[in-house]
C-alpha cells in the first residue's frame, strides 16, 4: 500500500469553482476547431437557422433564476433534510450543473465565434451573409450560458461564518 502525499494546497481532489481562464481556453480551442471544420466543409453544411442558439438562452435563464433561489436558501441557512429545505445533495447537484453548463457555454460560445469569424471573412458569399445572424445568436447565447452558470456556482457557495471564530474562543476554558 502506498502512502498518499499531502496536497500542497491543503485540498484533496475537491470540486472547485470554475475558473474563467479555463473557460476562455475551452472557448478558444472550440473556436479554432469549428473554424477549421467549417473552413474546409462549409459547402457541405445546410444553412444555419437563426433560432439554432436560442436553447442556450433558455438554459441561461433557468440557471440564472435557479441561482437566486439557491442563494436565498443558502443565505437563510435553509439547507437540510426537512421538508421545504434545500437538500445538501440537491445543492451539490446544482453546483455540478453549473460547472457542466459553464463548460457547455464556453464550447458553444467558442464554436459559434469560430463559425462567425469564418462567415465574416467570407462576405462575398450570399450564404455566408445569411448565416451570420445564427452565428451571432449562438455566440451570445454561449456567453450568457457560461455567465449564468458561473453565477449559479457562486450562489452555491456556503457563506463564510465570521462568528465561528468568536464562538470557538468563547467556548474555550479560561
Automatic annotation (TrEMBL):
Look up the domain of life of the source: Bacteria
What protein name applies here? DUF3180 domain-containing protein
Against InterPro entries, the record matches this protein to: DUF3180 (IPR021517)
Where would you find the membrane-spanning parts of this chain?
23-42, 54-75, 96-121, 133-152
Q: Which UniProt keywords apply?
A: Membrane, Transmembrane, Transmembrane helix
Q: Does the keyword Transcription regulation apply?
A: no
Q: Does the keyword Transmembrane helix apply?
A: yes
